[in-house]
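Researcher: Next sequence.
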Amino acid sequence: MSKNRAIKKEITVIGGGASGLMAAISAARTLGGDSVRIIEKNDKVGRKLLATGNGRCNFSNVKCSFPDFYSWILDEYTINFAKETLSRFDVDDTLEFFREIGILPKEEAEGRIYPYSEQASTVQESLKAEAEGLGIEILYSSSVKSVKFLDNEEGTAADGNPGFEILLDKGDLLYTRYLILAAGGKAGSQYGSTGESYQMARFFGHTIVKPIPALVPFTSEDQRFQMLKGIRAKGKVTLWKDRAVEIHAETGEIQFTDEGLSGICVLNLSRFLRLREKTDAYHDYTVRIDFFPEYSEEELHDLLHSRTEYLKNRKKEEFLNGMINKRLSPVLLKEAGWDFAGICREITSEEVKRLVMLLKSWEVEISGTKGWKEAQVTSGGICILEISAETMESKRIKGLYFAGEIIDMDGLCGGYNLQWAWTSGYIAGASAASASSSAAATAASERKG
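Model: Next structure:
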């Protein structure tokens, strides 16, 4: 590739992941693929897609709604931002898009949407085929070294128009009128997500909300987990800060690992962890597990008390059999201070009371998370106050757009974050194409005049 100003495209997308592919396809459907370029650092597009949904690609969720998304900005602004974007390209629009490119969706538990093929590779291949079919240029194994905004005086290709100059690691110099940053966050570093796109956004004057791993298992130094690893239990998990402030609660299946806690409900809590100021260390957090959220303390007390009667001839160590995982039972009874000697009719009221308190609020100290490699998504990124919800365009640099995980917006586990990728990508691509068409029409009108 020669190094000159002729290497120009009307729209360039940096990042060939889910949001980048959607942005490029959306733009190309309006302008034509010969006007659109994707710059991808890996040797294939959509690499991270291949790992989603355990290789099955949970690419959306029928329950997806604006309250299911979060940012570090005030809740009301976040909800309005998510509501505005989802109203422009929602789940129904997404499913129709995928049908058009050959993917037959199917709904499973909790509203999760998968391809009927149950293969993530078919989603990745269909997106790639659509992009190539439209004639979109894809530059593989190409990293961006620097990006520069050119104002009207500098121009983009001696045409007097503002735009962007892109220098690749190989030394190639590219030019584009409209730029879409869709290079992802930091989650899943093994797939090439390193967060370098934040530096590009920061160069353009954007505020970066400090990224932290989200949808990621918790770690704990609690030695009890060595005995409990492999256990699965249903319950309610509540995150507490400094044991005094309740942060957030989720209900679902809890998975005990040798290093801490996992499961969808735990993953959904992880985005609420905050780092200490100017450090990479977390504040003091604990998780309290309610193993019987359907019962009040009083109801659970009555239930356990009645068991002391109809299980009166059973051994005390068997008291919780049939109520809770039998590997978890002795740990809880021991922590409740039970004397295992004897039979159930000898259980005291005080023992029942202590057990109820433990079953309703079993506490675990959290030391951190499993980090970027196991995180499914990034919490943090470009501040949404600096982005138009209607167009995904920067409020600081005209012609600059954002899509996907690079933005400070993340959702629940279960297809919500890929829905954000499709929604933001579609809007960014369509908006850039619309801006290009409007500029071309204005220029044509001026020439006639």
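Model: The two ends are 38 Å apart (CA to CA). The chain has a mean pLDDT of 93.
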